[in-house]
């Protein structure tokens, strides 16, 4: 046993093998392009778990003797402690996390370390480590999404009656409630959470034991290692096991769709918090000032959530292009799978947390939203619907009469609720006083009782549905 920190750097594996034929410079370049420990050290916990499960299985199958297995297990435990305490020597010369762990194990326990790699290859090892990592990342994203949905539900409940304009083309369309608008995102993020769950379930098969590509001649028990690592079972084809990364692509797809939803919501927060809209204000917690303009309060967190979408989609594109056109089975190209996944899930984690923070933090300006909801002839559809319902006018003609009413109101500089009855009757003589009951934003919203509609009672029904669904989730 010797102290690795005082050891002279050993030549790399490549230099050992090809050193006589190559000049020093290309060898260094080879190490530079080949080395992955700088990023795959993030897989250390998964790598140790995989090795421990593998060693225990080899012992149970009589491939390893009890003494060697005990030495391997305690050496791996010691490595865990070293890493946790920041004392582990991560060394470029050992290329990746798998060889760093194995090299350190040899320093700690001697020759028995060399028996750990029986019946496995780095190909099934990395496939297993990475699946474990992505499965965790999906679980974590799912938890964050549930927290965001809970934040939205709490705010939607408070704002179930708050009027706001509903938009199409970002033009005022029909009044809705702020609670209803927030609940639209509950639906989106709820589907995102389900996508991560589905992806986790599909990837939950263990590649360990596929070995390099063809399986192993040793009497291994792949069901045992799969169970020990919390997988539903082993993968069924050794070539597929070591050569696909579709589980990561699926997770990145789910992340990208989530990022799209986050970005849309972030965009709305940016718009709503402008003085021109003034629908909401954000506290100091999620805004920044300007170094030159003292009046500014910028929604930086929302803007950065919006921008993280680029990074997350970039990761999906990047890994898709790495995988496209690779012949079976493993190729070193696949080492490039990790950085995009790490980056995307780091960004997603931050974006989801920041969004939940902003949702809980924002203050709606109810008066301003209600005033905006009532303006812009937003109840024109209600007027047309009234003509259909009360006067049995075909909708197309009702639409025409309403259009003319809006034109008249615009000319007179009034909104629909203030358009004199005589003006309406000039367009359709049978219109009477009762029409004014449907022309307020409040009545418009209250009347939309269809399932999934914006009426406060219906919004509350959907909130109750989600609360119950989340209870079953937990
Ligand atoms: N560092 C490698 C990776 O991440 C491990 C697998 C190496 N396998 C091989 N056949 N060279 O993909």
Walkthrough of the structure:
The chain is mainly α and 474 residues long. Helices cover 62% and strands 4% of the residues. The strands form 3 sheets. It has a two-stranded antiparallel sheet. A hairpin with a 2-residue loop joins strand 1 (163-168) and strand 2. The longest helix has 37 residues, at 122-158. It starts with 12 loop residues before the first helix and ends with a helix. Residues 1-19 have low confidence and may be disordered. Arginine is lined by residues 36, 40, 96, 122-123, 126, 330, 332, 334-335.
Describe the structure in brief.
With 474 residues, the chain is mostly helical. The chain is 62% helix and 4% strand. It is built from 19 helices and six strands.
Helical content (DSSP H or I, runs of 4+): 55-70%
CA radius of gyration is 31 Å
Supply the number of helical segments. 19
Q: Give the beta-strand count.
A: 6
**Strands in their spatial order, largest beta sheet:** 1-2
Q: Which labels suit this protein?
A:
474 residues; two-stranded antiparallel ribbon; 6 strands; elongated; binds arginine
Task: Indicate the topology.
Layout: H1 13-18, H2 24-34, H3 37-40, H4 44-60, H5 66-84, H6 97-109, H7 122-158, E1 163-168, E2 171-177, H8 178-203, E3 205-206, H9 222-228, E4 233-234, H10 238-243, H11 246-272, E5 280-281, H12 300-323, H13 338-361, E6 363-364, H14 366-374, H15 380-391, H16 395-412, H17 421-427, H18 441-447, H19 456-473
């Amino acid at each position: 046993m010797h102290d690795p920190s005082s050891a002279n750097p050993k030549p790399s594996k490549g230099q050992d093998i090809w050193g006589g034929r190559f000049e020093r410079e290309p060898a260094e370049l080879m190490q530079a392009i080949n080395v992955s420990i700088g990023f795959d050290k993030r897989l250390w916990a998964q790598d140790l778990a995989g090795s421990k499960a593998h060693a225990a299985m080899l012992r149970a199958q009589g491939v390893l003797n009890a003494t060697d297995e005990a030495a391997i297990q305690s050496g791996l435990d010691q490595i865990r402690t070293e890493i946790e305490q920041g004392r582990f020597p991560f060394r470029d010369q050992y290329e990746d996390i798998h060889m760093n762990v194995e090299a350190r194990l040899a320093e700690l326990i001697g020759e028995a370390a060399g028996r750990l790699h029986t019946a496995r290859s780095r190909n099934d090892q990395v496939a297993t480590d990475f699946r474990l990592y992505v499965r965790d990342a999906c679980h974590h994203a799912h938890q964050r999404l549930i927290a965001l949905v809970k934040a939205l539900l709490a705010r939607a409940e408070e704002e179930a009656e708050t009027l706001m304009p509903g938009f199409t083309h970002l033009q005022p369309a029909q009044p809705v409630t702020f609670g209803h608008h927030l609940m639209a995102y509950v639906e989106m993020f709820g589907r995102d959470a389900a996508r991560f769950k589905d992806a986790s379930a599909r990837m939950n098969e263990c590649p360990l034991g596929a070995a390099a590509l063809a399986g192993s001649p040793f009497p291994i028990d792949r069901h045992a290692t799969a169970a020990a690592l919390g997988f539903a079972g082993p993968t069924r084809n050794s070539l597929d096991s070591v050569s696909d990364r579709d589980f990561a692509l699926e997770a990145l797809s789910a992340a990208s769709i989530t990022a799209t939803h986050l970005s849309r919501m972030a965009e709305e927060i940016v718009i709503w918090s402008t003085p021109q809209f003034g629908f909401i204000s954000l506290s100091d917690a999620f805004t920044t000032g300007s170094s030159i303009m003292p009046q500014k309060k910028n929604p930086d967190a929302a803007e950065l959530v919006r921008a993280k979408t680029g990074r997350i989609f970039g990761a999906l594109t990047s890994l898709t292009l790495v995988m496209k056109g690779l012949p079976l089975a493993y190729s070193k190209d696949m080492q490039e799978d990790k950085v995009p996944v790490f980056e995307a899930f780091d960004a997603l984690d931050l974006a989801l947390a920041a969004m939940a923070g902003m949702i809980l933090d924002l203050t709606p300006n109810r008066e301003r939203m209600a005033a905006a909801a009532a303006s812009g002839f937003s109840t024109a559809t209600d007027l047309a619907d009234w003509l259909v319902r009360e006067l049995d006018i075909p909708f197309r003609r009702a639409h025409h009469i309403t259009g003319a009413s809006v034109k008249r109101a615009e000319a007179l500089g009034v909104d629909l609720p203030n358009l004199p009855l005589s003006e309406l009757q000039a367009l359709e003589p049978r219109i009477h006083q009762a029409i004014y009951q449907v022309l307020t934003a409040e009545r418009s919203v209250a009347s939309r009782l269809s399932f999934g509609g914006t009426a406060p009672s219906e919004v509350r029904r959907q909130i109750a549905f989600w609360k119950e669904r989340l209870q079953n989730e937990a």
